[in-house]
């Protein structure tokens, strides 16, 4: 049975293959016939006005089925239109309608107030009557039309808020306790109705109406304490509702409206100081309400905090601080009150953050954020109370504390705060420098260099940078990232640079103070040499410290680059200033020979130490063939420049001036010969090549510069000496070519 089925399947498959082959041949034949037919039609009708449409070829495809275009049933389209119509008619229109009704009541009441059309009591009774009618109507319709009923109920609530407010604020029909009691009752009613209906719209529309009252009925002479008390009652009820039903939108609306009203009323108030205590109390109440509601909601429900929610917490703290600062600043002239207010803000956040962390009431991000707020306000209190260098010092101390805490407790957020505070510290220190070290800064003869407040505070800040750098390297267990790079790379470099700038500026200041009452041509050269000498010594010290202790490759690279730049400046600028001092000594030999001439050898020693530091770091941290060549170039260039400078120096003192041609050319040639000899004896190709290049430079100098102004005898001497030296170099190459080139040289000679 199975064999028959398999045989039948095989026969059918063969039949399909045969039919496909036959169909392929048929299709090809059909296409050929159609092509011929089309060609004939085209030739007959080429003069016709409208050409015939082209007959398409039949393509070979046995399985292609044209897609059927979907037809959307007319009933579906009509259903969508019905849904849109239902949304507009049963939902959107009623909400707009109740808002229009409430606004109409507001405007009508205001008009009646201004024109005195009816008595005050009658107006209030009518207002409550309208609210009662809407409330009863909503109650009757709730069973069948719950959404529509909820809208009516919210409008009734908004009108009740409005009527209670104007009854007390404009007519004094209620004493303050009664007005607050009615508002409290209305708020409780809002909460209960929202829970009963389980509809957010009741709270939202009632909320909009309640917050709109102060603006719709504004006269410019509002009773601010009453207004703030009114807002506080509304907020307490709505925030309870937000927590009960988890309606975050209610909380966000209440938050935004409340702080906007506070800002508007504070900025437009004519005399805030008259009721300072009351305004501050209600400002504090508003802050506490939202702060408590926010934390309680998250702590009780154990929810994680999103970025928008953290932003609300931040805005709440900042808004309270700004308005409180403005209130205190306009009420008192004593800045100590502002300092105490700022510290109180810091203390509140620090205590709450610490309690939350200790009791583990919320996730860590919120705890750290609240603690960060406390530290931020503490940081802000420093520039409010202090001035000048004290701000910089205190910020630096706080940065050290934050960094130490972050490293020991493994809290990256503290490290980020520390970095931010270091940036503030740096900015403050730069401002201090601009005031004391700028070219147009006032300098007194009484100024004590290295013992003034600016230098001492700047030095202390530099020490703080160094401490943080040391701690970061010691506790280098931070995960790789931007924070670690800043603390272990950028910060140590900033410490080195800031310390250098701090001392250099003070050296410059010391010379400025000294030059006020001492006039001399040499003082400017001594000033520049002292600055360059310190720069060379400073870089040399760091090169040595890194070579012996730190052993950081990246730091070594940067220090070597800076060291080579300092060496270049020393060769160009420093030796030039030493030459100026020498010329001044020659012109006036009564000057002190040690101060005018002896300084050069101290400068040479600094250059030698710098070169040694650069070479040591290159050999230790960047070993390679190219680095070996760089070391040779740096060492020999420096030595040659110093030898030439020393030759010119003593020639000038001996009265043989203008030795830049003959004498220097001979020194160049002798030094080139020494390089060739060293290269041959040590088998160092780059040294030998350096000597050959120097021979070339010397020859060009002699031919194009020296011979132009030399006498015949001088030309003869120079050329003979140069030729002899070059012959000696060539002789040495020929004599030691076997040891230099080995078998390679012999092979090349044989082939020649």
Task: Spell out the blueprint of helices and strands.
Blueprint: H1 2-44, H2 74-115, H3 120-141, H4 146-169, H5 176-197, H6 200-216, H7 224-245, H8 248-268, H9 276-301, H10 307-331, H11 335-359, H12 364-385, H13 389-409, H14 412-437, H15 453-474, H16 482-516, H17 523-550, H18 553-587, H19 593-621, H20 625-653, H21 662-682, H22 685-706, H23 712-735, H24 737-741, H25 743-751
> Shape from CA axes?
flat
Q: N-to-C terminal Cα separation, in Å?
A: 95 Å
Instruction: List the helices and strands in order.
Output: HHHHHHHHHHHHHHHHHHHHHHHHH
Percent of sequence in beta strands = under 5%
- The beta-strand count equals 0
Q: Give the helix proportion (percent range).
A: over 70%
Total number of helices: 25
Describe this structure in words.
The protein has 752 residues and is mostly helical. Among the domains are: 91-219, no CATH class; 388-519, no CATH class; 528-659; 661-752. Helix content is 82%, strand content 0%. It is built from 25 helices and no strands.
Could you write a compact summary of the structure shown?
Among the domains are: 91-219, no CATH class; 388-519, no CATH class; 528-659; 661-752.
Main features:
disordered C terminus, 752 residues, single chain, mainly alpha
